[in-house]
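quick one before i forget lol
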Amino acid sequence: MLQISTRNAELDIRVTRARLDMRQPPADIQMHQKHPKIIMHKEPIQIQIDQTQCFNESGRMTTTALADHISQLGQQAIMEGISRASGEGDRMAKIELKSDAFAEIAYNNSYTVYEYNVGTMPRSRPKIDFVGGNLDIQVEEGYVDLKVTPNSPQFDYYPGKVDIRLKQYPHISFEFVGNNVDTIV
């Protein structure tokens, strides 16, 4: 009897993968800039309050206002005196009325009539003026100057490898087993 035994071939395959390394260096940037400037000039506001008219009405007059006031009172007194004297002269001239003009005139000139009234002091408002308060703003523009130099990417390529080795050779063996050999001669 014939016994056949076989052994298959065995391969040892080792694969090293390919590798790609990529590096991207940052771009070279040169920057020059001028900052914007704001120049402000501010003049403070001033409030001017003129209470001269209020003080004049309250009796606290300046020298010139007091002189003008006394002058006006004097002119008014003179005009009233002239008017009164003229009226009294006309009255005395009318003798046809048959009245005692001298006694009436003396009686009217013997006392003074005062009129009283309620009023607020002062009657005028103060003059309020605003001076200054100017704001001057000047802007100097700034700028940014950029110079960008891009860098090329860098590649490193490592190729892959496939190693194939025969780990076990194929083998076929024939063996005769037993004593029975049929032979024909």
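fyi Residues 63-93 form the longest helix (31 residues).
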